[in-house]
Design the sequence.
């Protein structure tokens, strides 16, 4: 009986050992699988960290480059502002000196003459523009004449053309004279400062 009990104990012990080994093998398999899954996650996270570091480095370099460019641009613009401010101050001083040099009444007379000449020039230009506009839009002069006979109509047409040519020549002369006067006035204006 004791032998039988011993055999039962040995059999139970063998079964428990076999079950324990099976459980241990299953747990080891689960642990290996978990270890592989975790290793994959770690590898993936390491790749992400590496990519992020690379991106951060690129952005840092780009930021340094942009900062350098903007700093140079700001310096250049500040220098330009200083030069322009100095130029404005110089021109203000020069203007004040010239204002003291030219009498006020002479300045007003020249200014009035300039305005008058500009007005006359503008009116003259309008006259020329209107002449060109209407000269191209007016119907043929021969169509507005009802000829009594052929010779009379030809003579009237030639007379009208001659008068138009005379008017055009006179307008050209006036325009040339006015242009010369305007140039002279501009020279005078350049030699005498305006307030």
Sequence:
């Amino acid at each position: 009986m004791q032998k039988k009990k011993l055999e039962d104990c040995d059999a139970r012990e063998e079964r428990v050992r076999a079950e324990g080994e099976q459980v241990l093998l299953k747990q080891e398999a689960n642990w290996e699988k978990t270890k592989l899954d975790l290793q994959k996650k770690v590898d993936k996270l390491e790749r992400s960290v590496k990519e992020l570091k690379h991106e951060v480095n690129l952005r840092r370099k780009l930021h340094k480059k942009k900062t350098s460019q903007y700093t140079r641009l700001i310096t250049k613009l500040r220098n330009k502002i200083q030069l322009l401010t100095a130029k404005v101050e110089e021109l203000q001083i020069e203007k004040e000196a010239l204002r003291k040099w030219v009498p006020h009444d002479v300045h007003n007379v020249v200014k009035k003459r300039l305005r008058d000449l500009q007005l006359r020039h503008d009116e003259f230009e309008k006259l020329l523009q209107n002449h060109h506009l209407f000269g191209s839009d007016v119907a043929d002069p021969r169509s507005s004449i009802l000829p009594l006979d052929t010779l009379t109509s030809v003579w009237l047409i030639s007379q009208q053309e001659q008068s138009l040519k005379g008017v055009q020549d006179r307008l050209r002369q006036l325009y040339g004279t006015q242009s010369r006067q305007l140039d002279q006035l501009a020279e005078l204006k350049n030699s005498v400062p305006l307030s």
Observations:
- Confidence is low (pLDDT under 50) at residues 136-148.
- The helical segments are 2-101, 104-137, 141-144, 150-191.
- DSSP finds four helices and no strands in the chain.
- The radius of gyration is 52 Å.
